[in-house]
Structure formats: C-alpha cells, structure tokens
Write a structure and sequence with these properties.
Elements: H1 24-29, H2 34-41, H3 44-54, H4 66-74, E1 82-87, H5 96-103, H6 105-118, E2 123-128, H7 133-148, E3 157-162, H8 172-179, E4 203-207, H9 208-220, H10 222-228, E5 236-243, E6 249-254, H11 260-265, E7 278-283, E8 290-292, H12 302-307, E9 316-321, H13 326-340, H14 346-362, H15 370-386, H16 390-394, H17 397-405, H18 407-411
Parallel strand pairs: 1-2, 1-4, 2-3, 5-9
Antiparallel strand pairs: 5-6, 7-8, 7-9
C-alpha cells in the first residue's frame, strides 16, 4: 500500500516519529531495529541487493547510486573498513539532515549500524556541522542510549565528530581529512575513498538522509521502496522550502510525483507566494541551478530536473519574488563561495573573485563593457572544468543558469560604447 498521505507528501522516512526521539524502547515499539536484526542475520549481498533495487540515489547532493557504492566497497578485501556519515549540511537553504538528527536520530544510527554490519566495519563516524552544537549533544545521548540497550559498542561503535564551520568539509575527502585532524582540504581522486578513505582504509561515506533511508528500504524491500518514487530513483526526498513562499520548512515528497508548481503553490507544501510574484527558484543550494516560472511544470525527480537543466542537489528550494535583483542575488552567492573556497586551486580561488568583480561592474550603469560578459562566460567555463573539487566546479552553476533566463538584466547596464 502506498505511503502517500495527501497525494503530495509521503511518510517513509518521517513515519513513526517518537514522542521521545532518544528513547530506544519507544523506537523498538515503532518497529525500530528490526531492519538491523534482518541485516545482522542475512548475507551482506542480500541487503545490498535491496538497496540496488530501491535505486536510492545519494541524498547529499551528488546523487550517486548508493547500491553501486555499497557493492564496490563490499568487494574490497582490505580491512578494517570504516563507515562515515556526512552530517556537515553546509549547503545554504538546506536543513533536512537537521530534522533527521533531531527527530529521528535512532533511525539514522540504525542505518549506519546496518552499514557497519554489512561491511563488518570497525567503527562509524558522524561528522556534524560545527554550528549544530545541540544536535551533536543529542546524537551523543542517542548513541549512549543505543549502547546501553546493547545494540552498539561490542563489534561496532559510532563516534560524533564536530566540524568547525567550513563548507568545503562537506566534500567527502575534505571531510575525511578533517576527521583525521588534518586541514579540511579535498584530496586528489583516485584513489577512490572506498579504497583509500579514512585513515587510508576502505571507507563508505554517505549522507544523513541516505543512511536514514536504509532501515526503511530493508523493512519494506527495495521493490516497494522504488514504487513509492520515480522509476529511476526510488522513495522520497526531504525538500527544504524557504524564501518568499508562504510555508517554509522540511517536506517529504515522493520523487517523480510532484511538480515544482505544486511544490511552491500547493497549500500542503509551499502554500504559494508570500504576496509577491515568483521570479525564480534556486534548487539544491548555492551550488545548484536557478529556474524560472517557465519551468514550474517540471516534475521533481532527478531525471526530470536534469532534463530541464535543473537538479535536486541537497533538496533546497529557495523561492524568490520579483523584488529580488538577480545580479544582487548572484553577488551574494559568489561572496559565499569566495568565503568558503579553501584556496588550494587557482580556478576557484581567483575565479570567484573575478566573477564578483564583473557582477559588481554589471550592477553600475555604463561601467561594464560587452567584453566583460565574454570574460564572465570564459570564467564560468574554466572554473567548471578546471577546479580541483566540486566546490569550484559548481560555484558558477547559479550564474550559468541565471544569465540564460535573465539576459536583459545582465545586459541592462552594459556600456553601448564598443570595447
Ligand atoms: C563543496 C562540497 C560540499 C558538500 N557538502 C555536503 C554536505 O554538507 N553534506 C553531504 O551529505 N554531502 C555534501 N557534499 C557531497 C559529498 O561530497 C558526498 O557526495 C556525499 O557525502 C556522499 O553521500 P551520498 O552519496 O549519500 O549523497 C558536498 C560536496 C562538495 C563538493
Ligand atoms: S575548487 Fe579548489 S580552491 Fe575551491 S574548494 Fe575545491 S580545492 Fe579548494
């Protein structure tokens, strides 16, 4: 039976939120740890087969198929193996991992413990955003409760590591460096983290929402989970609505069954605009693309959004009305990346500064020349193709999508004198 609750929202992950989210007994009463017991009793291949059937795409932003990642790690003979949960949640406009850690911490732990059992891993680490101090304490309390109940601490244990406010530490190799106590800068890949990861050992890195989906998949079966979503990507996605729509918050939507228009305008979700008229929406965080009202009928799925030049990314949906200047918005996006660039490579370290300079020129009547627009395009191409890690590769994604949609605003102030 489908878990749709009103045609637009679904309760797969957010089912059975306990009155006391830290209580192991309440969680058990709601079916908690049954998936872990199944995983511990079954063969690792069986669990991985369910994750593959579910077509769970990584919920951290890159949408890598979780089943393939798990299968790859299973075939690596070296031990010990480590499990790492990416709870850095640094993408602006994204606050869904926070909901899982606050309200469903035991489901997250169960997902990590299932991975621990599948890979016979030595330990698990949850790398939590530095600003989430209270959540870190909550997770530590949850881990202690699970240990006290006897599920953790014998063959496998979980530790909480605090980030220190660097967005780049959400990139999985920078995250591992930071966990090891090193400077949080990305590593060169290959070698793949599945082969040479934490402490140079085989490692699984998945996002909070990805791990929290694992008990759901094990309990309901991969085929049933797939049915709840899109044929290419099963299940649900937690989306974070914010900005100029009436309702902000986290909503669990079935993948492939809701359009962007429903997401923003339906009373069950965004509830429409907060007075103004929609100008654009920014999907997947600062590193994601911008879309306009013409794209509102796009279905919210990895496949459909990609076809429309958009993306799910982290699940952020920032809605902006016509009071917002696209140039001002992009300046703030670029300032974010200047602040967060780790400085290791030139295209990102210098490219973001140059982007900002041109955006500033474009904002002042007569200051920019046509050649500045060409430079802007070249910069975007160079940064996207030559940056060392995903931060620089996606820093200009918003700009790259926006200038096609708002060409007139980009050109409004360009000097008519030729250069
Ligand atoms: C600059 C940058 C920041 C990232 N930040 C996060 C983050 O905060 N949380 C996250 O889960 N993934 C983040 N990622 C993606 C991770 O590198 C990685 O793809 C993810 O943890 C894998 O888990 P998943 O397959 O379950 O999505 C980031 C990537 C980049 C390039
Ligand atoms: S793209 Fe280069 S400078 Fe930017 S964060 Fe990655 S490694 Fe650092």
């Amino acid at each position: 039976m489908s878990k749709l609750i009103d045609g637009l929202q679904v309760r797969l992950l957010t089912e059975n939120i306990c009155a006391d989210p830290l209580s192991v007994s309440e969680y058990e009463k709601a079916g908690g740890f049954s998936a872990l017991k199944k995983a511990a009793a079954g063969a690792p291949e069986e669990i991985i087969e369910e994750v593959k059937k579910a077509k769970l795409l990584g919920r951290g932003g890159a949408a890598y198929p979780a089943g393939s990642k798990w299968e790859h790690l299973l075939h690596i003979p070296e031990t010990p193996k480590y499990i790492v949960c990416n709870a850095d949640e640094g993408e602006p406009g994204t606050f869904k991992d926070r909901l899982i850690m606050e309200r469903l911490p035991l489901k997250l732990l169960e997902g990590i413990m299932i991975a621990g059992a599948v890979f016979k891993a030595k330990a698990g680490y949850i790398y939590v955003r530095g600003e989430y101090r209270k959540i870190q304490k909550r997770l530590i309390a949850a881990i202690e409760n699970v240990r006290a109940a006897g599920y953790l601490g014998k063959d496998f244990d979980i530790h909480v590591i605090s980030g220190a406010g660097a967005y780049v530490c959400g990139e999985n190799s920078a995250l591992l460096n930071s966990t090891e106590g090193k400077v949080g800068r990305p590593r060169i890949k290959p070698p793949h983290l599945a082969e040479v990861g934490l402490f140079l050992q085989p490692t699984l890195v998945n996002n909070v929402e990805s791990f929290a989906n694992i008990p759901v998949i094990v309990n309901m079966g991969g085929d049933a989970y797939l049915q709840e979503g899109h044929p290419d990507s099963g299940g649900s996605k937690l989306v974070c609505l914010s900005g100029h729509c009436a309702n902000s918050g986290v909503f669990e939507v079935p993948l492939g069954k809701v359009t962007l228009r429903q997401m923003i305008y339906d009373a069950q979700l965004g509830g429409g605009m907060n007075g103004g008229k929609l100008k654009f929406f920014h999907l997947g965080g600062q590193s994601g693309p911008i879309g306009s009202a013409d794209q509102l009928d796009t279905v919210y799925s990895y496949t459909d959004l990609k076809k429309a030049g958009l993306s799910v990314g982290s699940g952020a949906v920032v809605v902006m009305d016509e009071s917002v200047s696209i140039l001002e918005y992009l300046k703030s996006v670029t300032e974010f990346f200047i602040h967060e660039s780790c400085g290791k490579c030139v295209p990102c370290r210098e490219g973001n500064f140059q982007l900002l300079k041109i955006l500033q020129k474009l904002s002042v009547p007569g200051k920019a020349q046509k050649s500045d627009l060409d430079t802007l395009r070249r910069l975007v191409r160079t940064m996207t193709s030559a940056s060392f890690c995903g931060l620089g590769q996606t820093a200009a994604a918003a700009l790259n999508s926006a200038w096609k949609l708002f060409k007139a605003e980009f050109e409004a102030n360009v000097s008519q004198g030729e250069k």
